[in-house]
Structures are given as C-alpha cells and as structure tokens.
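Bench log, entry 3. Co-assembly request; chain sequences pasted below exactly as received.
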Amino acid sequence: MDDLEEENKRMKAKTLRTYLARRILQYIFVVFLGLSLVFFIPRLLPQDPIRAIIGQFQQHGAGLDTKTVETMVVTFQELFGLSGSLVEQYLTFWRRILTLDFGPSFFQFPTPVSELLRRFLPWTLGLMLTSTVVAWLIGNIIGGIAGYFSRSRWARLMDVLATVVRPMPHYVFGLVLLILFAYLWKVFPLGGGASIGKPLSFNIVSLLDVLRHSFLPILTLVILNGAVWYHQMRLLVQNVKNEDFVQYAKMGGVRTWCLVSQYVIRNAMLPQVTGLALSIGQIYSAAIIVEIVFSYPGLGTLLFEAISRADYNLIMGIAAISILTVSTLVLIVDLLYPLLDPRIRYR
Amino acid sequence: MRKGVRLMLIVLVVGIVLCFSCLALAQPREETLIHDTVTGVVGTPDDFNTWAGWRWPDRGLHQYCLEPLWIAEPATGEILPLLARAWPPEYNEDFTKMTIYLREGIYWNDGIPFTADDVVFTIELHKRVPQLLMHGPMAEYVKEVRKIDDYTVEIALTKPNSRFHSYFLDRWGALRPMPKHVFEKVEDPITFKFNPPVGTGPYVLESYDPAGYWTTWKRREDWDRSATGQIYGEPKPKYITTRVFATEEAKILALLNGELDLAYLSVEGMRAAMRAPHVRTWRKEWPWACNIDPFVPGLVFNHMKEPYNLRDVRWALTLAINIEEFMTIAADLMAPVSPIHIPPVPAYKKAYFEPMYEWLVNFELDLGNGEKFKPFDPEVPFKLAALAKKKGYPVPEDPEAIKDIFGIGWWKYAPDVAEKLLTKHGFFKDEFGRWHLPDGSLWRIQLSGHPEPTTFHHRTMLAAADQWRKFGIGVETWTPVAFTTLNLLGEFDVNTTWAALEPWGAGVDLYRTLWPFHSSQVRPIGEYVAFDPGGSARWSDPRMDEIITKLEKVAIADEKATIELGLEALKLLVEEMPTIPVYGGIAFLGWSEMYWTNYPGAENLYPHPWHWWPNFKLTLPFLKPAKE
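Structure output for the full assembly:
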C-alpha cells in the first residue's frame, strides 16, 4: 500500500516536472518569437527613422541644405547602429535584449530607451495597473452579486447603467468627464501628470497632486472596463448559480453570502483570472487613448510615437516589456490554476 | 454604524476635493504667459543641446533662451540682425570671405560676455565634430575662421559661396552661437545635455516636467543684456510656460478656462474657441486666419512617372480645378490663392507679385493648331469674395482688401481647354466620361496626403481629388503614415506637400526655394531626395540650373539683380508648372485676452504672431498685461 502511494507520488511529481518543463520551454519559445517579430516587423515599415527626424526639422521650414541633410543621414546611421547588415543588427538586438540595454531612442536621441522606460513606466503602471485591477475587482464583485440577485431592482438598474456605459468610446467618455469636472466644475485639472512648475517629490503634497491628476483618467478606465467585467461576470454567475452543487448547498442551509462568494463567484472566476492576465497586454492600447485625452504621461503615447517614426529601439524596448510581462503573467496564472480550482490537475 | 460609514465617506470625498482645489500654479498667473508646444511631448525634457539633434526647440528654447546672428521676420518681410550688428553680412568680391560684426554689450545668462570667441569656437567645433547637425556645411566651406577683434569675425571659405550666411540665418533653426565657456569644458558635445541652457536670450530655464509636458522660463534680471532686450526693450511676461496638450479639445478648454493664453488650432478648433468673449483670432473679423505664413500648399507631380512628365498634362490638371470649389474644401475660403510658387507674404508682394501681374495676365498656353489660351484669371479674388459673401461671411468691399484676403488671382476653370491639351497627346474620354491614357487604360491618379485630417496636405488632397474626379479621372486618395518618406523616395503619382520649398519669408532672395529644382538634386524613384517640397517632384530644367548658377554669383545685398533672377525663375515655373501652387500658408491662432493683450493681430502687426517660431521673443516686449 505504501509502495503504491510512493509510486503515485513519484508519478505525480514526474508529471508535474514534465508539464513545467514543457510549459517553460513554450514560454521561452513565445518570448523568442515575439521579440524576433518585434525586430523584423518595424523594419518592414516604409517609414525611415532618420528621414523622420530630418523631416521634423524640415517640416517647420528649418534651413537644412543638401549637404547638411546628407551628412546628417550618415551621422545618424552610425549613431543609431543602422549601418550594418540585417543579420548584424539582429545579433546586436539579441545582445542588447540579454543585457537589457535597448540602445538609444532614435527620435529622442541620445536618450537611452531604458531611461525612457524608467521615466514613463511608473506612470503607465500606476495608471493602468491600478485601473485594470480596480475595474476587474469592482466589475467582478458587482457583476457576481448582480448575477446572483439578477431579479432585484438594483441589479436591473446596474444592468441598464453598464449597458449604457459599455459601448461608449474611451475618448468620448474621458472628454465628457473632462468637460464636467475640469471645465464646468473646476475640481480636476485639464491634463498632465502633475501641476506645472512643481517638481515631483516624495511628500504628501506631491502625492495628492499626482492623485488629483490621475483621478479622471482612472475613473474613465475603471467605469468603462469595469462595465465589461461586470457583464461577463454576471453571465458566468447566472450559469453557475443554477448548477446542482449550488442548489444542494442552498438546500443544505449554507448562508447566502457564503454561497455567493465561495460557491458561485469562486467557481465563475477562472476565465476572469485568465482574462485579467491577458488584459495586461492590452494596457498600451487603452493607455494611448486615455493618455491622449488627459495629456497624461505614459508608455502608450510613447509607443504610438515610436511606431509612427519607426524608432526601432524604442518599439523594441516597450514591446519587450509587454511580451515578457504578459507571457510571464499567463505562465504564472497557468501554474496557479490548481490552487484556484482544485478540480484542475495536470495529467 | 451605516450612518457612520456614510458620514466618513462624505468627509473623505469633500476633503479630497477641497485638498485638490487648493493646489495651484507655482508662478503667479498674472505674470505668466502660457502657450502650447506644437511639436508634441518633449522627448528629451532634460536635454537642451539643440546643436546635437532634435530637442523640441519650440518648448521655449529657441524662442526665449537662444538668439541667432540674424533672423528672418516674415511679418514685416525683413531680415533682422540680433547678435550680429548689421544685415547683410560683408562678403569679398569673389565670395570667399565673409565678415560678421557682432553686437556689443550682450551677455550670456550666466554673466559671461558674448564675443567673437563664441562665434569662432562654434564654427570650429562644428567643423571638427562630425556628429553635430551643421557639421556638413561647416566642414565643406570653412577654410579658416578667426577673430579680428572682440566683435568682428572673419570666415575664409574653401570655395565661393554667396549664401554662406544662410546657415546662421534663423528660420526655425540655424547655427546659433554656442557659449564657448560652457562647451569648451565638455568632453563629448554630442551627449552633453546643456542643462541648464546658457543662452543670450532674455529668459532662463526655471523648471521643466521630467515627462516632457511643460517647461517654464523666467525673465532674466539683466534682460537688457540680451539682444532682444537691447533692441526691443523689456519682455513683459515675467514667466513663460510652454505646455503640451495631446488633444485639441483639452487645448480649447484650457483657452476658455484661462489656463492657456496662446494656442495653435485647427480651423474647427478656432471656431469653437472664438465663441468665448476673451478669445480673439489673428484677424478680428472673418477670415480670422493668419495669412502671412511663408509656405505654399500645392500639388506635386512625380516627373519620373508618366504622364506627369508632360507639361500639357500638368497644365490640363491645373485647368481642371475650379478654384472656388477647391478653396471651399481646402481652407473654407480663408487663404489667399497663389498662382506662383511663393506665398503672397509682405516680403514678396512688392518684389514678385506686383511685377509679375501683367506677365501673368498676358501669359499664353499653346493648345496646338495655332490656338492660344490665356489661363490667368484676375477675377478669382472677387469670385471668391462673392462666394464668401453668399455663405454669410462679412467680406470687405475695397478691392485691395479683397486681394489681401483672397490673393491676386489664379488659373481659370477651363475643362474644355484641359480636354484639348490632353487629346493633343492621345488621351480620350469614354462614353461614361472617364479619361483614358493614350495606351487605352483607365487613368487613375494615386494622390497621397498626410494622414492627419486637419493638416493642409490632407485637405488639399481631398479638394484635388474632388476636382479631378469631377473632370473624369479616377483618383485614389492615399494617406500613409510614412507620407514624407514615400514622397522623398518618389513612391506616388501626385502628392500634396508644399508646391516648393518654403522661402525665407523675408528679404527677396529665392535661392533656398529654387535650389531643390536644380538638376543635381534629382534622384531616381527609390532613392531619397534631400527635400520633400519641390525636391520630391524630381523635375529639373537646364534653364533653371542656369538661373540658380547666376543667382549664386549675385551678392545678397544686390536686391535688384536678385529680384530679376527670381522673376525669371518664377516665370519658368509657371510655364512648366512642375508643381501646382494653390494658396498661401495660413495659421489658425487662438489668443486669450484674459491675462495678456496687444497681440500682433492683423490690425496691429508689429513683429511675429506665431509663438512656436524663434521670432516670438521679439513680440514679448510689446505684450501688455490685461489688468493694466
């Protein structure tokens, strides 16, 4: 009997090891493929990063003559490391990835990409992670409760509100908030990450200032994204609450709130957890719109600028972070599944 | 319990709101001028080394901190000496030596005097360091630069160059003198951030946003030791803040709220903002737009592609345009039309537009079989005025005022003549009214424009597509993100950049505008040309080469000879029509009079009205606080 148990344990450990090895290899492959695509795709763009910079001078009528333009092109090619063959550039690219040195941004030369990431990542993380997590929590909790008590008046009111809000574009909704709370009722600023003329520091005044500037952007994201989570969770809960085990628990006298939280919401959560990990990858796209509406600093606008000006190094830096974050989060979620749902076992 | 929680929540919300509301600007608003930055979020907020690359100069760096030797002033049409004592510079007979006399009594903002040493150092450093932006021309032309005395510099050139001074003439950029005492201690002038920037301009850096959304400048205590202060007097705002708005909506709200004084807007944005009583535009009455911006939006043919290499085809496409309809779409009738390849700004009206008028009226096209046609229509401004009146706009009655607003005239709408020019070359129309190329295939024009719908390129594209479709040509509009790159490579049939490279906008020299049309600048499709406006057409003509060569031998001081050659070149451009010039550049400005007044509007045009140009420093001494 003991031998059998021992054998069982060994088998389980082996299965887990095999699964882990396969999953980690898959993770490495996804990261490699994703980063390689990040290298090649921008180079297929018809946009030339050097001409984009020179164009910026010329667009405003700066007096650059032919000689100046020609020498600028050669100089920039050397400075940006674009003078070698594609293979040489690809090898340099991997060397840089492995040392986390993405080189200089072309358009913001000589600023290193790593410095730009350091400068803007905290804003994006602060805004997007906060709003993503808060929207997810609020949407799922309210959606779960509303799904369970779907016939109540307040749940139906929530349905109407979420249905009205959900299709609204981020741009329009943000602008409405801006007009209401920054123009008509001047409580919040019209934009920016902090007040003009007041350098940021670690004190309560600065913190309040940043909070004040990020309130409307976060509110926009929380309401709009929360409505999406709300609808999804509500539908999931409506299915789960009719399942036999819930009915048995109900008949067995399990208290309502325990039933809702432990039996219904917990079982309906799984797809939402995966959805949360995947939604982290979409933060840039949502960030661009919100950053634009509220003139808020962050990686979204930076990525947009980088793509439109073919700033390969900057695209590489931002995309690398995105690929690594999303792949790692999905890996973690996959590995945590058995903890979240005891029914799942890796065979 | 529930009541307690509710009370706590209310207190928390009210507390936060009150706390937020207490926060304000660091500088007194009444003493601060705030304007937008048109080139977007500053990507290098801590870096002010504008000699080493693109550093978002309109964040205030080139308006308030740095000063050039000379500056082009399109508002008056003059070229003004700032750090130099006089204009024009002195050349020797064969243009191999240029002497610059410097203004005395100018100090850098850290208290060190500005002298010839700074100019000599700047040129020598640029000659020596290949990574500096203006290294190319300095290395090619400068043989030796030496200081004659503290305020005189002599530059010996490697070969004759009558336009060498243009590298130091500021028109949104130039080789401005560097502070020697700062840069001589720097190991690498490329990576050096030049922070805080040391300039001779009347303002110093006060603070900036590390994320690049704002920069604040403070007036120097010794503003009278800047060239601007010395010539024009005390700049009135004590502080200037440049701000970035990612959307025009936010910019308009800020203008209405009193959080912004000067804004560069789209036509729609201007219309929205001007409803507020404290917001004014450049012209107080219709057409509101500022029409002295020295550039010419137009249509650029790719001469390396058939049939656009044919002069008759280019002229046919010009005569297929109904300018009244075109201008309605392109600029809502607010811009002056221009039949020639320069804008109708003050500098050129007298020098070129007036002398060319009779020639334009009498200019003839040969339609074949001995038939001639005079294409110029001097009635266009009055037709445009009548149309504007019909639309309900208040249009002046005075013919001169009408010409000032609408231009001197444009080309006739003559589809019948266009048809004759095309059939001459074997083009034909089918039973559906569609034009076919001589080889029988349907004529399709790939017309490219900028992807941003509020730009002049985009609107010109829509207007031209509308006209040519009505004429029976299939037009595919195309708005690639890589618009400029594709123009430079020649990947288009017709593009909608400027009809010619922007002229200086001041003085009478057109060398800069004509040079991209020199045969040495033409490259095959797939190879980059140096200039998008003018150059991307890939057009050249031996007669133009000859004019340019002659112009190179004319001294900048010889205005008569310069104008004569300029007129010759402009006539050649009209005859050949390598690109179609359509209208003079305009800008839509919103000026809030809540805190500042006496802006340089049309009724009061002293210096420059555009706050993103380096010239704006010259405007500051004339502003008045609204409370006065």
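The first helix of chain B runs from residue 2 to 22. The longest strand of chain B covers residues 142-149.
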